[in-house]
Design goal:
- Helix content is about 55%, strand content about 0%.
- By secondary structure, the chain is an all-alpha fold.
- It has a domain of about 90 residues.
- Helix 2 crosses helix 5 and helix 4 runs antiparallel to helix 5.
Length: about 130
């Protein structure tokens, strides 16, 4: 009951102006939103570059150690080309528009890929349990 008495019921206060590190989206001006007429963005190159960087980070995140056979199996499964790496690429790409550090997003992206892989494996082999 003491906790309930200390909770404030007033609405949250929001700042009246933009924070100093606010970055407008690409093609936007401070006065109005404008549409880009020509872009030089190549999605396939961007996607494959991020996949290569994520693969490199995953390779470093799962070293071979004792027992080697188990780690070899984990590395083989996670590093397989069957997974398209869409969730980790989207995780890193979501960091970019808000001005975040891309290198700081890679550990989260690798964790996401590992979690999704192991949850898929658990669901696939759940009939054994």
């Amino acid at each position: 009951m003491a906790f309930l008495a200390s909770v404030s019921t007033s609405p949250p206060r929001y700042p009246s102006r933009k924070p100093p590190n606010f970055i407008l989206p690409i093609g936007c001006s401070a006065s109005s939103y404008s549409v880009l007429t020509a872009t030089q963005f190549d999605l396939k190159t961007y996607w494959t570059t991020l996949i290569a960087e994520i693969d490199h980070e995953l390779d470093e995140a799962i070293p071979l150690k004792y027992p080697e056979r188990i780690y070899e199996a984990i590395r083989y499964s996670i590093m397989s080309k069957g997974f398209k790496r869409a969730p980790p690429v989207m995780c890193v790409a979501a960091c970019e528009p808000i001005g975040g550090n891309l290198m700081a997003a890679f550990p989260t992206a690798c964790t996401l890929e590992m979690f999704l892989f192991f949850s898929f494996q658990f669901e696939f082999f759940s009939f054994l349990f």
